[in-house]
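G., the chain you wanted modeled:
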Amino acid sequence: MSARRVWQALLIALAALPALITVVEVRAGVADPADYLTRQSGWWALAWLLATLTVSPLVAALHAPALLPFRRTLGLTAFAYASAHLSVYVAQVAPTPSVVLDDLIGSPYIVAGFAAWLLLLPLAVTSSKYWMKRLGRTWARLHRLIYPAVALGCLHYLWLTKSDYREPALFALLAALLLAWRVWRWRRRAGTP
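Predicted structure as tokens:
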């Protein structure tokens, strides 16, 4: 087994660890399991999304292109946690479909979160090498949807927070820095000051 496959397997195990810990904690007994699962899966979805965006600056800073293949694993992990987040929410409101409509009309944070998930969906579907070859240059343009998805995810987190804004603000700050780095890099390549 190659070193890259070993690192990939370790990354997948690390990605699954928060889900495993959350399940163990729910089985041990938490006050509101559905709320806990929703919060944990959402937190980790955003954390893995930011980790995905961190790969490119790390590659540039460390001159380590060998890190690039791990970006796909991180992105798919973020999508898996975001899908779990959405699934737990839907499972809670499925018995009363009108609640979903009420949430979409009266809760902008639900709209922001759902929009973020919708933007991530085509990225997950087209993440394979097959789609990279098939879509060509369009693939890179399509995968820029991660930027508005991250912004919407941060907005979702900020809007649903009731009192302590430190954590969502930290996520938003990290996202802003990662996006600013990309803008700086694009302008530098284009020769724009």
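The mean pLDDT is 91.

Shout if anything looks off.
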